[in-house]
Structures are given as structure tokens and as C-alpha cells.
């Protein structure tokens, strides 16, 4: 039986839904959680199997992201208004048969109002929603598990073959009892969440080595880092010598999934002694998502292998990499002091590979303000190189992509903080005659020195056939770029518009 059904829209919340699925299957076992990409076999009727799975479920989690409500098809029509839309059919079926439905809001999404939903889905607006935030993913997820009647501290479920050793589950879990239990659990979870928030606000972070990295997912402190926290006496001691470890010959690995090609690149490695028994290793990794949908990027995808030990990171990273975009993250490990050869293990969708690293190939990191924490030369910052700010780049370029026309009407660089600048593009989209066009955050990318970045702001609209709309797209611009281009994606087609950097020359 599939006890929990996860409903989601791939272009809106695939990464969050995937992480939720991983945690639920770890706690309950794969046979008790249904998600289409994992549970459908080749040749199965997609619609029929989904409806059967919803009918067997004891609870449906409707994962709702910022684009869930207004997501449009290729013709520009809202998907929820299509009676054959799978997300609509899943939720409507659960509501119709009395299955508890919990809206799970991710990526800052708001709960839709009843008047924004098709009639068959309007009861969803009366369901108590649950927020899963990237910054507090672990604690939020614990609360959700408790609301589902799952003990988040319990050991993961045993495989079905060994499940006979566990006491049998009580029979007769009627749906009305499940609804009442869920409602009560949600109230208790809400109170616990408020208490947790109050405690968190009054407690200092225990992760004192946190660093800010552009386009990096949230880096939350982990209880496992407590053992590594310096005592007051140690805090006054001289900084131990740190070393830059040479990158291995194989420092890039690629995974191909049914939806995307994902590339992980090892960018830098730092080694530092901790005590007679352990050493610290920090690795900087970039994830490039070449697919059209969001992909999860988190610390649970990585381990450091030293001999027969698989060592998890001491810091927690939880985030997403949008389609055709990249992000970087620093991962910290504590390894045995005598380990000279280790490997960075990377996992994605059940596939695993390792990048061997020799810790003997290292050089001391000089105490030099011109070097970063990995011993690499710091690149020039945009805020230092471009004076005065704001500054404008030449705009007015027009290009056709996937049948639609796009005009870059303006590009302005502004200071955000002492260290960071942003660049804002004003882009107009003109839909072809007879066909509506999606125009939003998934349409525009900024290619900085050959690496694609997603916009910071959220844009989501449909441009009616033969009409035009324009909006602004904002990107970070921390380091001074050597090359800059605007990438445009539409209907499976893509193009890049190079930008002249003359106005960015130092003055």
C-alpha cells in the first residue's frame, strides 16, 4: 500500500518534492510513499496508475511552489483549468474520496485562495498548509513528519524482507480517524514550531566557520559540528597553518537522468589540522543543472571516503539549482589525521561516483589579503571595478527564440552592499500570432564567464498571442566578469546575446 502520495508540478517544485520523497522513504520505506518518477514503470498508463495510487493513499501532500497556481501550457493556458491536468486530477481525486490533503508550501509560495482555484479544487483552500523553508528545512521537515504521525527520531524503516521483526501496525486506520489525528498533530506541531522559533532566536549559531558564497544554498549549523567547536582557550590560540590541496586529475563528474544532465565540479580544497587525531577538509563544489527543471543540491549528496569510512559533511546545505543554472557550495568534513588519500563521493538519484584526492599534493596558504580562504587569488569585485555606480550597458538587442521575440531594453548595474552589485535587465517578450508564450524566471539566464545563473526575483506570466509584455530580471554580479551574456529559453529553443563590457572598464 502507498500510504503517502506526493503531488507536485515538475517545473515548479521537482527538487523540493524529491527531497521530501527521500526523507519519507527513509522513514517509512519505499513501499509506503508514491511519487510518479520513481513508482511508474515503462509501459504503464500514466493517468490510470496515478489515480490508482491516489485511491490507495492515506494522505496526499500537495507540494506548491511559486509557479504552481499560474503555470501555463505551451499555448499559454493555465494548467489547473485543464480537466486533464495531472496535478488537478490527483488533488481532486483525493478531495473527492475524503483522503486528507495537506498543502506543503515551498520556495516562499503563498496558499492560493478559493477564488483562484477551479471549482473542483476549491476545498483545498480550506486545508491547513505547512511551510517547508530552505533555510530551516530540517526543523520544518521534522514538524511535518510529526504532523503525519511519524517519529522523526526513529530509525529508518527496515526493508520489507526484514519487516517481520517489527510489531504489526494496528489495523483499521479509518480515514476519519486519520483526518482527526492529522488535525491534532498539526496543532501540536504548530505550537512546537513556535517554541522552536523562540529558542532559535535566543540561541547563537554554533557554526562559527560559516562563509558567504555567491549563489550558495542555505548553510545551517549542524549538531555534529558541536564536537568541532573551539573552546574559549582555543579561540585565542594562533591560527593553525592551512593548506591548499591540488585538484585531482578528475575533478568533474556528470550524471544523466531522465530529465537532465547534472555536472558537479570540484573547484577548490582546503586542509587544516585540528588535533592529533583529526584534520579538517573543506571542498568547494559547483553544481550545473543543464535540464529544464529544478534539481536538489544538498549536503546529503556528498560523503568523504577515507579508507573504509564514509564521512558526512559537518555543515548542512539544502537548496535547489534551477533549470539551466549553476550554484556553488562549501562542504566541511572532519577526517582522520593520518589520511593521505581520500575521495569525494557524489550521489544523484541512486547513482554514485568518487573523485580520488591526494592530500600530499598541497601548498601552504599564505596570510595575504589578496588570497581567498582556499589560497586562490581573489578576483576583482564589480563594485570596485565599476565607478561610478549605477552604470548602464548598451541595450536594444532583439532576438527570436522559439517563435517569440525578445528585446533587451535596458541593463543597469547597481551597488547592493559594500561587496556586491546587481544587474537588472528590462526585457520585452512579443508572442507570435496565434500562440501564447510563457514569460518568466525560467526564460532568462545571465551567463557570467560561461556559467549560467538564474534570476533572484520571481517572474511568471503568459503573453497572449500577438501581444507584448515586459518585466525586470535581477541577478547578482559580485566579481568583475570577463564575459557576460543574456540567455533566453523558450519552447525547447535557446540563444545567447553577448553584452559589450566597454562601460564596465575601470575609470
What does this structure look like?
With 507 residues, this protein is an alpha+beta fold. The chain is flat, with a radius of gyration of 25 Å. It has helices spanning 10-28, 36-39, 46-56, 86-96, 137-147, 175-202, 232-235, 382-385, and strands spanning 4-7, 33-34, 59-64, 101-106, 130-132, 218-220, 243-245, 252-256, 261-273, 278-289, 295-298, 302-306, 309-311, 316-321, 325-336, 341-348, 351-358, 362-364, 391-392, 398-401, 404-415, 421-430, 437-440, 444-448, 451-453, 460-463, 468-477, 484-490, 493-498. Residues 37-45 and 158-236 have low confidence and may be disordered.
Overall geometric form: flat
Number of strands: 29
**Could you tell me the radius of gyration in angstroms?**
25 Å
Q: In terms of quaternary structure, what is this?
A: single chain
Approximate helicity band:
10-25%
How are the SSEs ordered, and which strands pair?
Elements: E1 4-7, H1 10-28, E2 33-34, H2 36-39, H3 46-56, E3 59-64, H4 86-96, E4 101-106, E5 130-132, H5 137-147, H6 175-202, E6 218-220, H7 232-235, E7 243-245, E8 252-256, E9 261-273, E10 278-289, E11 295-298, E12 302-306, E13 309-311, E14 316-321, E15 325-336, E16 341-348, E17 351-358, E18 362-364, H8 382-385, E19 391-392, E20 398-401, E21 404-415, E22 421-430, E23 437-440, E24 444-448, E25 451-453, E26 460-463, E27 468-477, E28 484-490, E29 493-498
Amino acid at each position: 500500500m502507498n500510504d503517502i502520495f506526493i503531488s507536485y508540478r515538475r517545473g515548479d517544485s521537482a527538487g523540493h518534492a524529491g527531497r521530501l520523497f527521500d526523507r519519507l522513504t527513509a522513514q517509512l520505506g519505499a513501499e509506503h510513499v508514491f511519487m510518479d518518477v520513481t513508482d511508474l514503470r515503462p509501459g504503464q498508463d500514466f493517468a490510470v496508475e496515478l489515480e490508482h495510487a491516489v485511491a490507495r493513499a492515506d494522505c496526499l501532500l500537495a507540494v506548491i511552489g511559486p509557479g504552481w497556481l499560474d503555470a501555463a501550457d505551451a499555448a499559454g493556458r493555465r494548467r489547473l483549468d485543464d480537466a486533464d491536468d495531472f496535478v488537478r486530477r490527483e488533488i481532486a481525486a483525493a478531495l473527492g474520496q475524503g483522503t486528507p490533503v495537506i498543502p506543503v508550501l515551498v520556495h516562499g509560495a503563498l496558499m492560493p485562495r478559493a477564488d483562484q482555484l477551479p471549482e473542483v479544487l476549491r476545498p483545498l483552500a480550506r486545508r491547513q498548509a505547512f511551510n517547508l523553508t530552505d533555510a530551516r528545512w530540517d526543523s520544518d521537515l521534522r514538524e511535518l513528519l510529526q504532523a503525519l504521525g511519524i517519529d522523526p527520531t526513529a530509525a529508518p524503516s527496515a526493508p520489507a524482507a526484514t519487516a517481520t521483526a517489527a510489531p504489526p501496525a494496528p489495523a483499521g486506520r479509518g480515514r476519519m480517524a486519520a483526518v482527526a489525528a492529522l488535525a491534532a498533530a498539526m496543532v501540536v506541531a504548530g505550537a512546537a514550531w513556535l517554541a522552536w522559533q523562540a529558542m532559535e532566536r535566543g540561541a547563537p549559531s554554533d557554526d562559527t566557520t560559516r562563509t558567504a558564497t555567491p549563489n550558495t544554498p542555505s548553510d545551517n549549523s549542524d549538531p555534529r559540528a558541536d564536537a568541532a567547536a573551539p573552546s574559549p582557550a582555543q579561540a585565542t590560540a594562533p591560527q593553525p597553518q592551512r593548506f591548499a590541496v591540488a585538484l585531482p586529475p578528475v575533478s568533474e563528474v556528470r550524471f544523466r537522468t531522465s530529465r537532465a544532465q547534472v555536472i558537479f565540479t570540484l573547484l577548490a580544497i582546503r586542509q587544516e589540522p585540528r588535533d592529533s587525531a583529526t584534520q579538517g577538509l573543506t571542498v568547494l563544489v559547483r553544481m550545473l543543472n543543464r535540464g529544464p527543471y529544478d534539481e536538489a543540491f544538498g549536503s546529503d549528496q556528498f560523503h568523504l571516503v577515507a579508507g573504509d569510512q564514509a564521512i558526512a559533511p559537518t555543515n548542512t546545505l539544502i537548496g535547489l539549482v534551477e533549470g539551466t543554472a549553476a550554484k556553488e557550495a562549501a562542504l566541511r568534513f572532519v577526517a582522520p589525521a593520518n589520511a593521505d588519500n581520500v575521495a569525494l563521493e557524489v550521489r544523484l538519484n541512486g547513482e554514485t561516483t568518487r573523485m580520488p584526492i591526494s592530500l600530499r599534493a598541497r601548498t601552504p596558504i599564505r596570510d595575504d589579503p589578496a588570497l581567498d580562504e582556499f589560497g586562490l587569488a581573489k578576483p576583482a569585485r564589480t563594485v570596485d571595478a565599476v565607478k561610478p555606480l549605477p552604470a548602464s550597458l548598451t541595450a536594444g538587442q532583439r532576438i527570436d527564440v522559439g517563435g517569440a521575440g525578445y528585446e533587451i531594453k535596458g541593463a543597469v548595474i547597481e551597488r547592493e552592499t559594500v561587496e556586491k552589485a546587481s544587474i537588472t535587465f528590462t526585457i520585452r517578450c512579443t508572442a507570435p500570432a496565434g500562440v501564447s508564450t510563457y514569460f518568466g524566471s525560467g526564460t532568462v539566464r545571465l551567463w557570467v564567464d560561461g556559467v549560467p545563473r538564474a534570476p533572484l526575483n520571481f517572474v511568471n506570466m503568459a503573453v497572449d498571442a500577438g501581444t507584448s509584455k515586459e518585466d525586470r530580471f535581477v541577478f547578482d554580479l559580485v566579481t568583475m566578469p570577463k564575459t557576460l551574456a543574456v540567455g533566453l529559453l523558450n519552447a525547447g529553443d535557446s540563444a545567447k546575446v553577448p553584452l559589450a563590457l566597454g562601460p564596465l572598464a575601470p575609470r
